[in-house]
Each structure stands twice: as C-alpha cells, then as structure tokens.
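Researcher: Let's do a round of design. I'm pasting the structure tokens now; please hold your answer until I've finished.
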C-alpha cells in the first residue's frame, strides 16, 4: 500500500525502487531521522517517503552531500520536498497552493509546475485554477518561486519552493564535474 501522508517525492531508475528506498533510508538515518517511512507508488521509478525531519532541510543536506561527493548516491535521481498532501480535487489543490503562495513576495516571480500521474485531471485546468488567483508576476524561465503540484492518483503533493529545493542528482553531478 502506498504511503498516504508523505513529504518527499523521489524518482529513481525503473525497477530500482527498492534499492532507492534503501539508499534513502541510509541517508535519512545519517541526517538523524529515526522514523522513516517510504513506499512504492505503483509507478515505475517513483517513490514517496515521510521523514520526521524538515523535508526542505533534508533536500538541502542531500544537495550539499552530492556537491561534495557526487557519486555517493546510486539510486536516488531526483528528490522534491512536499509541504502538504491533499486529495486530488481541483479546489483542494488550489486552496493548498494559494495558502502557501503567501510566502511569495510582492516583487517576486513564480511559475506553476504540474506533474500528473494516474489522474484524469488536466495540467492546463490546474494552472488556470491557481495562477490567475496569485497577484504576482509569472516568470516561466527563471522564477523566484515554483508552485509545484504533484498529482499521484487520488493524492496530490503541493509545495511552494525555491528552484534549488528540487534536487536533481544528475544535474548536480554535471555541475560538480564542470568545476
């Protein structure tokens, strides 16, 4: 059964979900977490997890670790913090996004980034339900904030994050290789 209350979304290689969960457990324990839950979602390469630590801090620590030792992670490909999980319902998703959007400053920009899996909900309808209700400028190429919506079947993770809060291990390896 898939975890219904998660605060991390992790992607990995197809058929390596169990290895990824083990690797995630290892790093979360290293960071001081003693109550970790993780599960497969039923989708290839996608895991959800619940850490007792601040998920934004976990992602930050993982980013720093990968910059120092880019080849330590073998199975975690991308990790994203989730601030809130709501039922997959247009108005509930919009309400959670709007509630969190209050952290976007008056002169800051945003974009809505939607990832839909196992749902009939449309990306366009989600964006149109959220973006016009936020009185801030939109910047699709270099926003100050990202309103990240992850629909996974009947549950949706909603977060308002800075671009650096999404950690792609592959991108970080490229950056560390170039420097």
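Researcher: That's everything. Go ahead.
Model: Designed sequence:
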């Amino acid at each position: 059964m898939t975890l219904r209350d998660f605060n991390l979304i992790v992607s990995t290689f197809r058929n390596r979900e169990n290895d990824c969960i083990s690797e995630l457990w290892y790093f979360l324990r290293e960071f001081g977490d003693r109550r970790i839950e993780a599960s497969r979602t039923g989708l290839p390469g996608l895991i959800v997890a619940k850490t007792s630590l601040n998920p934004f801090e976990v992602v930050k620590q993982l980013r720093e670790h990968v910059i120092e030792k880019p080849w330590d992670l073998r199975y975690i490909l991308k990790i994203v913090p989730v601030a809130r999980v709501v039922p997959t319902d247009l108005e509930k998703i919009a309400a959670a996004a709007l509630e969190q959007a209050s952290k976007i400053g008056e002169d800051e920009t945003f974009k809505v980034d939607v990832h839909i899996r196992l749902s009939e909900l449309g990306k366009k309808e989600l964006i149109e339900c959220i973006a016009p209700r936020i009185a801030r400028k939109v910047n699709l190429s270099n926003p100050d904030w990202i309103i990240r919506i992850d629909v996974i079947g009947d549950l949706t993770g909603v977060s308002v994050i800075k671009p650096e809060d999404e950690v792609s291990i592959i991108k970080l390896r490229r950056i560390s290789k170039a420097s």
